[in-house]
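Journal club side-thread
Mid-discussion, someone asked how the predicted structure for our own chain would compare to the paper's figures. Pasting it here so we can look after the session.
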Amino acid sequence: MEHRILVYGSLRQGLWAHDIFLQGLEKKDLITVHGFDLYRNNGDNYPFIVKGNGFLITEMYEVNDEIMQALDKFEGCPNMYTREKVHVQGGFAWIYVYGEEPNARSIRIDCGDWVKYLNNRDG
């Protein structure tokens, strides 16, 4: 069975986890998703999202059951992240949402784009 998945962090093209889990898969689309806020914890180099008033830049991929199970394990689903349905053109896709609220160590990324944030921070 094929699953549509939206990725926004280290699973995006050009980043380390993409090469492990999504290498060779065709990116179906670049999609802006509303209703989420993007964060990172100060000292940690991974992003997370929570429901909010912002927007998020994502890449959509179609994956099989085996890759979906591997992604669930990678994301610590359902304990650290939960997999939630998001409506997109032509149906829905899955997205991983952080299971806790941001805290004092959390830094909001207002641009909603993890890749852009990394490029601006590092460059």
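Post-session note: The mean pLDDT is 94.
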